[in-house]
Amino acid sequence: MATAPTPTPNTTSTRMMATNNVFEDCVFAIVQGGELTENYAAQMKESVITGGGELVELESNDNFDDITHIISATSDFPQYMAARAQMISVVTPGWLTHSQLRGKQSPIRQFTPDPNLFFSNVVISCGDIPPGDKDAIIGAVLALGAVTHICALSVDHEKCQMALEKKLKVMIVLPHWFDDCLKLGKRLDEKPYLLPDPEIFRKSPEENVPIPSTPQLLGATSSRPENFPIPTDSPRRSPLTVFKDRRVMLSADLNINDRLRGIIEDLIVGGGGRITNSVHKTTMFVCHWREGREYVIASRAGIDVGNLSWLYHLITHNQWTNPMRMLLHYPLPRNGIPGFESTKITLSNYGGEARIYLENLLAHCGGEFTKSMKPDNTHLITARAKSEKCAAAVEWNIEMLNHLWVEESYAKCQVQKLTDPRYTHFPPRTNLGEVVGRTQFDPELLEKMFFSRDPTPSPEDPKPVRRAAMREKDRNSRNDEDFPMGGMDGQDAEEELPRPKMSVTRRSRTSILSDASTPAGRRINLGKENDTPSSTNSRSAKDKALYQIHGLAPDIALYEKEKKRKGPVWGGERAANKFEKEKVKKEKSAERSSSPAIDVEDDHSESERAKKRAKTKASAKSGRPPPEIRLMITGYKEWIGNINKEEHDKKKLRDLGILVTQDPTTCTHLAAPAMVRTQKFLCALAMGPTIVSTDFLDTCIQKNTVPVVDDYLLKDLANEKKFGLKLKDVVARAKANKRSLLRHIPVYCTSEIANGPGTYQSIVKANGGDFHLYTGKGGATIKPTKPEEDPNGPEPVYLLTGPKPEERKLWPKFTEMAENGNMIPMIVHSEWLLDVAMSQQLKSGDKYLAVND
């Protein structure tokens, strides 16, 4: 990952800068390690003394008397947690240099080594970004730690031009980088987002992305390494200092032989440490399982508890590291994670150390790992959404997630929700292997689940004050005189971004919006006007029914999963289809006998489902391979009024590996004669598909072969000029948006609008928006709020309308409802939605206002 370099102070210039007493009344302790080498630390010490500060040694017994600042390049040193609990400022070396340059002490937030604040070394300057989006980006950077970066949509802005002309060491990034980092709760490499030629626009998501290296996983891929880290027959070994003044206890559950135990004990003693067999006297406890009296006592005492892999890591690197920082450095749960025992999981797009690490992590969770993927797999863990396994996962209805789901399930000791968007987000030109291994344990959660304290103190439970101090540290570690950090929490990450609520107390706009289709987020809150409480009796009846349903839940889930399983063998979908058919026949015959009225729409939809099932079974019998192209077609004149030809051509296309679909959310390609503003075109466009001319269809059908797709890409200069956009740029923006252009933006629609509200509903839903029919008589409404309840100010809410008198009557009611909910009413023509969907850019509704007519 490209990060801003930490300035190394020059001794001569430092003396000139620090003539005033910048660090007067400050007492510093310096922790060497990482980029803070011995020579660098010597320069730091001289700078402190020149600036009027005082230096002391950092003691190992958590005694911070008189210390005001600890300088460290990382949070990975033994006294970090205790220092934070005692409100000692922990800063990176850059804080010292920056304070000297300013002539006064800088705020510490930007210079915290806390890994949770992954924007801590980011100083952001916004270019041509809308004002509201600037506030959202700046707020996110401040909340997570943050001139090293310029955020812009193009390099045309004067700030960008100046940076390029002067060759400044700054990164000019698209706002999409911030959005993807916030969605994942991890800092990604900036390279694919760098202007003037960002890779996410230049290359398609299908193109290969190199598998990144993972140096953070060295020595942390297994809970029990196979080999000892250093040769045991080496005649000369430099003494270890990491064990100096420490008392180490090796647990019996490590199951190591006497020879290996002797070697480890010799290394510890030779490095100035001591071996103890009393858990009450130890300062480092090494064990394999998270169980047993000694584990509980050591953990409650707040001492370092790790496994053999952690001990080997200390010996190899001769540098202390927190055993909770890497998941496989901490003792294992003996019975795995509840819920993983029934999983069968495979990996895709991970390589090297990251793949070994995830395989071991899955084994410790209790799941079954498979190298190849078959229809009976339950989950696919992938670093990108593009591979043969990914395509098969979609075809076989297998859950597809990124590695954060596995890591956070293990770290939180329970299976995380599959619906959390953090686990299904895949940036288009990023391999998520680069952020493997950055998930850490939460000490409070481990305490609650494995060594919770008894109500009454015990003589076997020493040092109760320190555990409380550690809990206080964890609260402060997300605060560092700044803001809470939710992005590291598996299910809270999205709560830092806008998320809809069920009651309409509006949410603040913290998601990033831009004219370059930065994915948007809005706070909407929809409720019912006439909610009435149920009686006690009905509530009791509901509770009983719910209890019965819960008892049947495993069977229902198994049935639904089995019903989706495809294949020519009996069972699965075939058996379910037969059962469903017989059930439908009985219901229909009962309806005909009891009532002459027949629901034509339901009958038609059932007929369509029956046809679909028949096609699925025919495909299974014919042994056709999974389709390589899922094609949506609009405006194809050859099929108009000729159903037989349409069915015949679709069958021929399917034999060629092209599946004609009516579902825009699954299509990979879109065929159209031109850029047309049809419902199909606009809905499919939100997926960012490959758009081809209908000539592609003609060639496939006539020559019975699939030509090179790139030779048939749609070119429509006339409509590009008419709409004022380029189709290539629109598709690139749609891919970056990932169907989130209108995310959480409330869009209402009148029932009398031309072409019917259903057309606009599908377009809004395809772009991730919230659609509601507005009649002025109830239904979904905006809850009244006061301006002070929303400190970020009002947000727009849209009403799609036409010029009919019955529609105009609704305008005053809608305006009143929006204003009472502290929102900006935007009563617009449908052209606003069509232009937004066609351009894949969020446009202001001012020029589309119906009142202008």
Mean pLDDT: 77
Helix content: 25-40%
Assembly form of the protein? single chain
CATH C-level of the domain at 624-734: Alpha Beta
Rg, Cα atoms, Å: 31 Å
Strand content: 5-15%
- CATH topology term of the domain at 624-734: Rossmann fold
> Tally the helices: what do you get?
28
Region (Disordered): 212-237, 450-543, 580-627
Pfam family, one: RTT107_BRCT_5
Protein name: BRCT-containing
Biased composition (Polar residues): 214-225
What can you tell me about this protein's structure?
The chain is of the alpha/beta class. Among the domains are: 124-202, Rossmann fold; 224-329, 3-Layer(aba) Sandwich (Rossmann fold); 344-450, Rossmann fold, CATH 3.40.50; 547-618, no CATH class; 624-734, BRCT domain (Rossmann fold, 3-Layer(aba) Sandwich); 746-852, BRCT domain (Rossmann fold, 3-Layer(aba) Sandwich), CATH 3.40.50.10190. It is 37% helix and 11% strand. The chain has 28 helices and 25 strands. The radius of gyration is 31 Å and the shape is globular. The two termini are 53 Å apart. Mean pLDDT is 77; it is low at 1-19, 142-146, 455-540 and 591-605.
